[in-house]
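ok trying again, last paste got cut off:
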Amino acid sequence: MQTVLRRGQPDVVIREFVVVDGIDLIVGDVARSGIAGLLFGKTVERILHTVPCSVLAVNPEGFESAIRLDPA
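nice, full thing came through this time. structure:
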């Protein structure tokens, strides 16, 4: 595991880091709310189909999805 802090546009920096350093897995928390959730969510949308590695989204304890299934 490696933690890295870099400056720049998140989608550009993450994609570049993955390619240059041969990263094989990105792990992120997508259950944020407010502005942080909006920014992180948009970053994931921008990089999800462009990075050559797996992306694992983890929800924190207590997370409740806004999506509800209609029980049949």
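cool. The first strand starts at residue 25 and ends at 29. DSSP finds two helices and two strands in the chain.
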